Amino acid sequence: MTTISKDAYLITFINVFAVDPANQSRLVDLLTKVTDQFVRYARGFVSSSLHRSLDGTKVTMYAQWHSMADYEAMRQDPRPLPYFRRALAMARFEPGSYEVVEEFAAAPSP
Amino acid sequence: MTTISKDAYLITFINVFAVDPANQSRLVDLLTKVTDQFVRYARGFVSSSLHRSLDGTKVTMYAQWHSMADYEAMRQDPRPLPYFRRALAMARFEPGSYEVVEEFAAAPSP
């Protein structure tokens, strides 16, 4: 389970993969496999959540890491690399690295 | 605080605003104001978290709602509309609606 908090001092990656709807579930399977087998063992990995767009055209990974250096070290690891290459062959990758600046909860009913 | 869980049966919006870095903090302020004053009071709103990209070029809202109908009803409300118009005047809006399909936690240390 992922918890989003601006007080956590993590780095957040929101990586959007634009994909042909025919390939969406293959891409979900691929990103599931690489995360489960490699990424979650990497130093500095905190959590990630994989999202399937309802229109079939996107898959978005919301991931939290302790630092950019930890994330970059994982991206240099040769073991997950073939998975990333296959993902990039079937999708247009729009990466983003973020900090959480605000959080909003539902207002109590009046 | 936002909790991401595939068992929550919510609809997730991951809305990316591509922005000139000179306008990033104005856009954060605007989206903070509209969420704080209007959106969080809307029926079906669960939570949202606002993210500032480290390179200055994006602002991304991660928002959870009970249903698409609730979200669309809020978008029809005339009160927040001027804020959304101002946001769209300074940013390129890439909306996405999703379901959470997988969650990953860090593997325990060996």
Counting copies of identical and different chains, the oligomeric state is homodimer
Calculate the terminal CA-CA distance of chain A, rounded to whole Å. Answer: 31 Å
The profile of the biggest β sheet of chain A is: 5 strands, antiparallel
Query: Cα-atom Rg of chain A, whole angstroms?
Result: 15 Å
What would the keywords be for this entry?
homodimer, 110 residues, alpha+beta, 30% helix
Describe this structure in words.
- 2 copies of one chain form a homodimer.
- Chain A is globular and about 50 Å long.
- Chain A is 30% helix and 38% strand.
- In chain A, helix 1 (24-37) runs antiparallel to helix 3 (81-90).
- Chain A is α+β, with helices and mostly antiparallel strands.
- In chain A, strands 2, 3, 4, 5 and 6 form a 5-stranded antiparallel beta sheet that branches.
- Chain A binds chain B through residues 1-6, 11-12, 14, 16, 28, 32, 35-36, 39-41, 45-55, 58, 60, 62, 94, 96-107, and chain B through 1-6, 11-12, 14, 16, 28, 31-32, 35-36, 39-41, 45-55, 58, 60, 62, 94, 96-107.
List the helices and strands and how they pair.
The structure is a homodimer of 110-residue chains.
Chain A (H helix, E strand, L loop, with lengths): L1 E3 L6 E9 L4 H14 L7 E9 L4 E8 L2 H9 L4 H10 E4 L2 E9 L5
Antiparallel strand pairs in A: 2-4, 2-5, 2-6, 3-4
Could you give a short description of this structure?
The structure is a homodimer of 110-residue chains. Chain A has 110 residues and is an alpha+beta fold.
